[in-house]
Amino acid sequence: MSSAKKVLIAEDSSVIQNLTKKILTIQNYKITSAKNGEEVIKALKDTDFDVILMDINMPKMDGMECARQIRSMEEKEKANTPIIAITGNAKNYSMDDFTSVGINDYIPKPINFDTLVKAVKKYTS
């Protein structure tokens, strides 16, 4: 039996964070949560994750800047962790904007949980 894949959920809305956590826990993922980009960077220093779900609009450090910092990390494994953006402002960004900072994919809000599970499976299998 392989060990559970680790997902870091970076989301400042506790409602979205809790729903996402419940959905992915049912799918046997091990979840760590962060409320802002600074917490994401701290969590990554301590743990390797299989995928990061990154809200774009967070306090202290937004998802775009956080993705840039992850991609510039010295440890290549951490720097290459897949990042899936989650945003309610998808109209304000193009996929090119996301890829320019190293984001692999994005899911618009309100989150479709089937889409979420498919995206997480895509990057963790």
UniProtKB/TrEMBL annotation:
Any one Gene Ontology BP term: phosphorelay signal transduction system
Gene3D superfamilies hit by this protein: 3.40.50.2300
Coiled coil (residue ranges): none
Domain of life: Bacteria
InterPro entries: CheY-like_superfamily, Sig_transdc_resp-reg_receiver
Boundaries of every Response regulatory domain copy: 6-124
Keyword Phosphoprotein (UniProt): yes
Keywords carried by this UniProt record: Kinase, Phosphoprotein, Transferase, Two-component regulatory system
Record-listed 4-aspartylphosphate modification sites: D55
Stated name of the protein: Histidine kinase
Organism annotation: Mangrovivirga cuniculi
Keyword set includes Transcription: no
GO molecular function: kinase activity
